[in-house]
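The authors assume throughout that readers already know how a fold can be written as discrete tokens. Each protein is reduced to its one-letter sequence and a matching series of backbone shape codes. I therefore recommend that a typical entry be quoted early in the introduction. For illustration, here is how one protein appears when written out as sequence plus structure tokens:
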Amino acid sequence: MALPVLVLTTGEPAGVGPELALAVARDWQQLAATVVAVGDPDLLAERARLLGWLVELDVVDLGTRLPVPTDGRLPVWPVSLAKPSMPGRLDPANAGYVLETLDVAIEACRRGTADAMVTAPLHKGAIIEGGHPGFTGHTEYLRDACGVEGVVMMLATERTSKPLRVALATTHLPLSRVAEAITGAGLTRVIRVLATELNQRFGIASPRILVCGLNPHAGEDGHLGREELEVITPVLDRLRNEGLDLVGPLPADTLFTPRHLDQADAVLAMYHDQGLPVLKYAGFGQAANITLGLGMVRTSVDHGTALDFAGTGLADVGSLRVALQVARQMTARAH
């Protein structure tokens, strides 16, 4: 049986992404997949020399048969840097390069050349400063590139007594804009995508989803905000009538406790920093970021570019291994 092919974008060239890709090639055991990196071969070779790692690069064309995974060898689909990159030193001139690596990975998944994509971290600021002012992150870029409306960002870890999965109703927005972004139509779409993907990609027959309120104490019956009464609760009631197992809206400060989480398959938080700090406290370095609703499998690491660790060899590869394992598992269920 052929191994699934996972395409790994190497992310911000000045960050830890290139060496994370190299670290995978140093030990293929337990991956049960073929990983092909997308990036500049000269960058990867230079980073390997800097670290003193013996990794040989197999530069291949997109669509060419990939070599059998072998310790110390890394297949690469080449994309050239705009300017040479130094560890820890951002250069906005390479913004287009980072986006091109994503485009190559997307095309490979669309063609069926790859079964899933996994992304190393990029630097939003460098991409914005490099001439892409509307860029807000991987999730939104992939949504637009794939031409879909309802994607959902979810992080997951198994470093807890039961797998903890936290999805977001909104993603990379300033806090001042969150309330207006939570609409009935948008929330309905997010919950449907989340429930469908938990069923199809994670094998959960009837997922139970805990839904956070937006306001303290879930609005305190309208005394601390009316979004729960006017938007969130009506959506949950309608979707329960369709057969979805939804609990809430619950106060976020008590939802993340064992008596609730032990009975749940996922949590839906209303905004980025409502749910993700809890998950990262529980499993940072051993969690995966997952984009649901793309029509293909995409996972990523749970951390940023770690510029201060770039080129030191000290970057923790744990989250990348989790992201690769989750991508492989999701791909297997999709088939």
